[in-house]
Amino acid sequence: MADISFLLFIFFVSTTIFRMETGLPITLPRAETVVSQKREMVVRIWVDQKGQISIQDKLVGIGQVRDIMVKILEENPARIVAFNADTRTPNRDVSAVIEELKKANAVRLSFTAAKQSDAGG
Amino acid sequence: MKKKGRWIAPTQEIPTASLPDISFLLLIFFLSTCMFALEEGIPLVLPGRSSGTIKIKRSAVCVVQTRPDGSITVDKEPATLLELRRIVETKLAENENLVVVVETHPQSEYGLMVDVLDELRLADARRISLKSLEVDK
Predict the structure, then answer these.
(1) How many Å apart are CA A76 and CA B10, to the nearest integer?
(2) Is residue B76 part of a domain?
(3) Residue B25 lies in a domain
(4) Chain A residue numbers touching B122 (CB-CB < 8 A)
(5) What number is the average pLDDT over the span B29-38?
(6) Would you list the domain boundaries of chain A?
(7) Which of A28, A97, A23 is nearest to A65 (CA)?
(8) Coil, strand or helix: which one is A119?
(9) Do A91 and B106 touch (CB under 8 A)?
């Protein structure tokens, strides 16, 4: 019994991670056609309902997004930007961030969404 | 006084009866605090800063607009998300190089844009352009 439980314990320790990044409290939109991305390739950007932006657990202004993303992409240009925004965030804030990402040449985006089994209609 | 039998030193043992309890507690702790790190999202590749403007024939473009009230229009005609999928599927059958331009109203919700992108992916549209609608202040 102890052997089995320790085996399971070691399995979970080796395959999961402690959640390192808190981000911002948001409600993700739901989508059916989500695709999994490799965790190590992803850099997360959070935008909440009020338009606050957080990158790597630091609140940043819209003017800082480009410089921060340029630095992150210098290490690995193939990184994917996971766009975590609240479903109620106004699109003007979303568009402003996307424009800054384009300026930083961060072109590989993934709009994070919770998996939905049935498509909305 | 005569000794009754030989004196046997007590054996030193570590009690292991609670070991399964400890291991299960640790297991439950890790189950509840850790999570499989999954990043799921709708992928999109934006044009880079060096890419120029491309001219496309009007007939090869389908414009989807999102409204602040949560509705959408497809080529200026009101439509539901399901109708959007059917319209784009029909247009793609006629022209596989169709470009779908998603124009988002600044005050429309991000969730609506994701719904539109989701329906476009379900319709197998792969050439998608994101644009923010210019609104007179």
Answers:
(1) 64
(2) yes
(3) no
(4) 32-33, 119
(5) 68
(6) 21-115
(7) A97
(8) coil
(9) yes
Higher per-residue pLDDT: A97 or A56: A97
Nearest chain A residue to B85 by CA: give it.
Answer: A121
Give the list of residues 6+ apart from residue A98 with CB closer than 8 angstroms, or none.
Answer: A83, A109, B46, B130
* B76 touches B105 (CB < 8 A): no
B66 with A15: Cβ contact below 8 A: no
In this complex, do B110 and A29 lie within 8 Å of one another by their Cβ atoms? yes
Tell me, what CATH number does B66's domain have? 3.30.420.270
Q: Which of B37, B46, B113 sits opposite A39 (nearest CB)?
A: B37
Q: Which pLDDT does position A7 carry in this prediction?
A: 85
Q: Which domain, by its residues, includes B75?
A: 58-132
- The pLDDT, as a whole number, for residue B73 is 93
> Cβ–Cβ of A33/B111 closer than 8 Å?
no
Residue B40: strand, helix, or coil? strand
Per the structure, the count of domains in chain B is 1
**Contact pairs from chain A to chain B, CB under 8 Å:** 172
Q: Does some domain include residue B16?
A: no
Could B81 and A19 be called an inter-chain contact, meaning their C-beta atoms sit closer than 8 Å?
Answer: no
Interatomic CA distance for residues B40 and A80, integer angstroms: 12
Q: Tell me: the pLDDT tens digits for B55-114?
A: 778 888 999 999 999 999 999 999 998 899 999 999 999 988 899 999 999 999 999 999
Inter-chain CB proximity A31 and B81 less than 8 Å: no
Q: Report the chain A residue with the minimal C-alpha distance to residue B130.
A: A95
What CATH number was assigned to the domain covering residues A21-115?
Answer: 3.30.420.270
Say what the pTM is: 0.75
